[in-house]
Amino acid sequence: MTETVSEQSTAVTFENIQKAAALIKGSVLETPCLPAPRLSQLTGADVFVKYENMQVTGAFKERGALVKLTSLSEEEKKRGVIAVSAGNHAQGVAYHAGRLGIPATIVMPVLTPFVKISATRGYGAEVVLAGNTLAEAKVEADRLADQNNFVWVHPYDDVHVIHGQGTIALEMLAEHPDLDILVVPIGGGGLIAGIATAAKALKPSIEVIGVETTLYPGMWGAFYGKEVRCEGATIAEGIAVRDIGVLTTEVVKKTVDDVLLVSESSIEQAINAYLTLQRTIAEGAGAAGLAGLLSDPDRFAGKRVGLVLCGGNIDPRLLSKIVVRELARDGKLVSIRIDTPDRPGTLGEIATVIGDMQGNVVDVEHHRLFLNVPAKGATLDVSFEAFDRPHGERIVAALRERGFVVRYLEIGDRMD
Questions:
Q1: Architecture of the domain whose range is 331-409
Q2: How many Cβ atoms from other residues are within 10 Å of residue 1's Cβ?
Q3: Which CATH number fits domain 63-152: 3.40.50.300, 3.10.20.310, 3.40.50.1100, 3.40.1650.10?
Q4: Is the Cβ–Cβ distance between 385 and 362 less than 8 Å?
Q5: Based on the number of CB atoms within 10 Å of its own CB, is 310 exposed (0-12), middle (13-18) or buried (19 or more)?
Q6: What is the rounded CA–CA span in Å between residue 169 and residue 166?
């Protein structure tokens, strides 16, 4: 007889998470959970980071994937497995299926970052690209599973997967038993369901708080009984889940204290903070927990907070773009448009003003021929580096004192 969701949720237990920890020991890295003084200074909390981006595949998903794969019968292993994923679950399944000699087929949305697609193929799995979203990719995965009698390895709504993810909490609280709060990114809910189950068993007083992007607030809606819409292009594609788990939702409602929503800009800020302050790489989903602290610092002020940096598989081009955008937001990269007379020496004069004030010109575009530029004039788009926002403002003021008409631009603006 098929178990109900409530019956399955009772199978998600601390004892089973302990068994999962013994099962994966030696095959999955016990990642460090280290104090982060610079993030503590930034947020006002006493921050500790669990570096799951150090796993072989760059993300926590290996834990649950391995527990699920080892639960299969020999006949199931011969049939092969199938998974649908935007990247990290795909790599976890592909890597450990390859280690165990299990054929694996992974269906990924066509918009999945290339770095994740190539990595999954590199672990030996057959990759099929289908649909623009995980929901659309799953339609093709269902077809292939029926056609080939594959065994499903669900990314989150599976008791074995949840148990594997819960091992993270065992490791965090073994190193830092005095943590007050764990902040955990939420996609389908497998990670937080496992972590909350383990953490509450070890320390009932600990708070477990989930974080979702505002574009995909599925668990927040279920947690608070709100109707929500999940759609849009997000930098946190790893947690861009429209259809959260039925089983995970049941567990989350029993064990999690709160679910927060964060903006795309706060996730960008968190990615940049991990890179520039911690010298480590976080993808959008991996940075969501820190984005939660940045979005509501008063809530976490003075508390000992454990963050799960759950993945670091970000496209390098996207990472470089985020760094530039954060420099602009902080006022350290200034982009301006200057209306000038079209005469020799003007560009040199502008560059001299900026240089004399210790600004560094990084880009110049000189426009003479556009129809919205006066026939006897020119327009310069100049980007320069400054120490901070007040320094940049002083440079702009100096240019205006020289008689130049200066307007601020957003990074990326160009002449029409």
A1: 2-Layer Sandwich (3.30)
A2: 4
A3: 3.40.50.1100
A4: yes
A5: buried
A6: 6
Q: Are 134 and 187 in contact (CB under 8 A)?
A: no
Map out the domains of the chain as residue ranges: 5-60+159-324, 63-152, 331-409
Q: Are 227 and 221 in contact (CB under 8 A)?
A: yes
- CB-based burial of residue 41 (10 Å sphere; 0-12 exposed, 13-18 middle, 19+ buried)? exposed
pLDDT (average), residues 103-112: 91
191: CB partners within 8 A, 6+ apart: 60, 156, 165, 168, 184, 185, 308, 310
Question: What confidence category does residue 416 fall into, taking pLDDT thresholds of 50, 70 and 90?
Answer: very low
What pTM did the predictor assign?
0.85
In sequence order, the 6+-apart residues with CB closer than 8 A to the CB of 23 are 66, 67, 70
Residue 190 in tokens: 């497998």
- Among residues 338, 319, 346, the alpha carbon closest in space to that of 408 is found at 338
**Residue 363 in contact with residue 357, Cβ under 8 Å?**
no
Same fold, 5-60+159-324 and 63-152: yes
CA dist list (Å): 177 to 205, 293, 305:
11, 20, 11
Q: What is the pLDDT of residues 284-325, one digit of tens each?
A: 999 999 999 999 999 999 999 999 999 998 888 888 888 888
- Determine the pLDDT at residue 153: 96
What secondary structure, in 3-state letters, does 155-171 show?
CCCCHHHHHHHHHHHHH
DSSP H or E stretch at residue 377 = strand 377-385
* Cα 248 to Cα 154: distance, rounded to the nearest angstrom: 12
Tokens of 360: 């560094």
**Is residue 374 classed as helix, strand or coil in its secondary structure?**
coil
Q: What tokens were used for 185? A: 């990114």
Angle CA(166)–CA(170)–CA(171) in degrees, nearest 5? 115
CATH architecture of 5-60+159-324: 3-Layer(aba) Sandwich (3.40)
Sign of the C-alpha dihedral computed for residues 85, 89, 91 and 97 taken in this order: negative
With beta carbons less than 8 A apart as the criterion, state whether 212 and 220 touch.
yes
